[in-house]
Predict the structure.
Amino acid sequence: MDIPEVHAALAALQATKRIRQRRLLDGAQGANVSLDGRVCRSFASNDYLGLANHPGLAQAAIDALNTVGLGAGASHLLTGHHALHQAAEIELAGHAGLPAALLFSTGYMANIGVVTSLLGRGDAVFADKLNHASLVDAAVLSRAEHRRYRHGDLNHLEDLLRNSAAKTKMIATDAVFSMDGDIAPIPELFDLAERYHAWLYLDDAHGFGVLGQGGRGVLERFGLMERAAQNPSLIYMATLGKALGVSGAFVAGAPELIEWLVNKARTYIYTTAMPPALSAAVTASLKVVVAEGWRRERLLEHIACLRNGLVTLPWRLLPSETPIQPVQVGSDAAVMALTRELMHRGIFVPAIRPPTVPEGTSRLRISLSAGHTLADVEHLVDALRAIAHG
Ligand SMILES: *Cc1c(COP(=O)(O)O)cnc(C)c1O
């Protein structure tokens, strides 16, 4: 595209009201935020445990900053690999219940690094249609065949696996789907991966810290931790900028896998290590995740309160046991009107529209947090009811 084309394309986005704009956050992330200069209740972050503004995490980072400074100064393979990174990796592997773990600067980079270092031409990725954009890009960049199966459709997936002549196969899926909040059929995916000798790659960005009694994520939720620990073809990935309230991501699995990534994952090798102080905050965050189980209990109460409160609404509340609670409204115009009405009442819930979701499935994406109070959630329920019936 040249500049006149960019100009015309932007005008077209404007005309169809599909132009995206950033809201300006002032102050800390949390249940109550200042957005574009306006204080409101927010149901729009991935800060599921309310840790992004936890003083203990900030303090851990400050303490580390005071002793080791800010910048990592180099990539991990040069001189950037700090004892604080290594300590976080050991804690993360332990919490996930897997033999080894590797930190990445972002989840996006982790997905790209893993898939491209294991697969190439002649191989195949079997991917859920609703996978996160970073997994889609990872598959494309790998040059492997990219076979997408209908959302959660195990028969479709098995057909594709059975008919594949690919040398190396990988099933790749979001564990919790980011725009729908539902959970992939993990035990069945384990079975299929074993039967067809495929890697199973689980992106648990929205489950780690949240799912399972101990917040160990989707594997704990399904009672699969032992099976996962004994399965060298399982690759577990989770992000640290969502429930953990910090930044970055990790990949966990067999020691050989981790050693391979250190040697071959380009998004690990050719980039500066994350500031070690952030790793110190990750380690501190994990301690809070373990010690403060009340955060997950509170989140479950909020989910139940919202779902009970919204059963009689005219819009479809999608099935979800996670903090991601989408209300499917249908048209762009309807969801935009709803967002505006909520904003008039001091509540921010984002409207999710195509191309992020399929045409005709525009939705409110309510995201709940242990940082909310029950009164916050009741306030949202009352507002939605008033809008629906008024
Ligand atoms: C957020 C997210 C990512 C990207 O993680 P970042 O650390 O934000 O880059 C990857 N996968 C899924 C499913 C996500 O929701």
